[in-house]
Amino acid sequence: YDRIYSDVVTDGYAARRKFDAVLRKACGDTFSLAGDGSWVEVNYYANDASTVVDRYARFYTSGGTLNVEYGQLSPKQTISVETVCGNVSGCTFKQAGRSAQMILALDDGTKTNTIITSAIANN
Hints:
The chain is built from two helices and eight strands, in the order H-H-E-E-E-E-E-E-E-E. It is an alpha+beta fold and 123 residues long. Helix content is 18%, strand content 49%.
């Protein structure tokens, strides 16, 4: 039961799904990546009627959680911050062309799990 429903496993599923969903709606040529791989930011259209890329989403870790910050680009302003999952012991982001990769280490004190996932920006 713990191998399927433990916190590190369910946190891994949540992180993978959110990362994939956000990256898939991102505009492919607008990645920003921290030099040390501590965060990745993608830009996207606010809705189907938008004619310019006007929003951003930034994945980062803080205090043992993986977070995604949503905001508007001009002027740059945070709209909301969502906690994706907890139990984060390490996270690194990388980019290869239009693809972004997340290497997420999870540890709840009794179990560990490492998630490696990537997604391609589709817009």
